[in-house]
Amino acid sequence: MTETLTMLGLESSCDDTAAAVVRHTVGQRGEILSSVALGQSDLHSEFGGIVPEIAARAHAEKLDIAVEQALMQAEIGLSKLDGVAVTAGPGLIGGVLSGVMCAKGIAAGAGLPLIGVNHLAGHALTPRLTDGFEFPYLMLLVSGGHCQFLIVKGADDFTRLGSTIDDAPGEAFDKVARMLGLPQPGGPAVEAEAKAGVPGRFKFPRPLLDRPGCDMSFSGLKTAILRERNKLVEQHGGLRRTDRADLCAGFQAAVVDVFAHKTRVALQAYLALSPSRPALAVAGGVAANLAIRTALETVSAELDIQFSAPPMALCTDNGAMIAWAGIERFRAGLIDDLSLGARPRWPLDMLSPSGLGSGKKGAKA
Ligand code: KG4
Ligand code: ZN
Asked: Is the overall model pTM greater than 0.90, yes or no?
């Protein structure tokens, strides 16, 4: 086995053009030598959401720059790399294609192995990069397009225990932000507003908590916020600052309760299968939310379970997680060739039946 691997990782499946260089020596923790993310929020802001064609064009323009910056920051040339990893799906197909074409060009030009990475695997394997987690562990993957409990058993071995049956939580944060006149991406904006709000002022639903299993739902909650907003607007002729903050706090508190409860249920199912590896990790853009991180940390502490949440920069989309997943796949012998395709849909768990809503909605579905 190659003792030390240095991998370039490219990510362009949504609205971040990212490149990173990660190095790993067997028996040691992975090291992020550089991580560059060029966002595109400014290009999409006037449309209230991500416009796929604009995203694809911006990725095509920015990928070279991101790669150049990542190599420069890592102080490394292409000849010192052991491979190029790239998000090959799931995601907005134009962006994924831009990344795959760029990676193929680099791999062919520099004579490097090419590794296609599932974007979700990038998120799901992050605790191995940041905290040296061993397989298996339970992962709550929460992002703009996805929400699932996974048992992570290997670089390419995932079992889904449950998922959202409608909206992804990031999507719900984004929609709530939009209905309250807050900027996109909605997650950080709603979280900031919620800090000043009273979570208990409105009685919002906690969907599916009365049902067994660890499937989740966020669509009804979002509708409840809309209804309450409309009532307030009717009563006062608009939303007052406190109303907006209380709505955000109430929404976030409901999401936190759903995650805390369903994580307990998922942990029970996971621990029944893997009693000797009590470990939980959260990943994806929504994992940047402090209230959610804290709630999951508390559940883990109650049950004496090892817990990992990525550093903020590795919650949202980034190149380091793709480079790392590339290293994991390389070590598992999962190397691609120039026939690598771009896939708009690519479930991590191919065997479980697809969730009702998971992975079917949102920009990152
Ligand atoms: O993982 P990510 O960067 O892209 C996808 O793969 O979807 O996640 C983006 C999502 C957005 O919906 C964004 O609103 C949400 O993550 N997000 C947050 C926070 N920061 C980002 N949601 C809640 N609280 C946050 N602090
Ligand atoms: Zn993501």
From this structure: yes
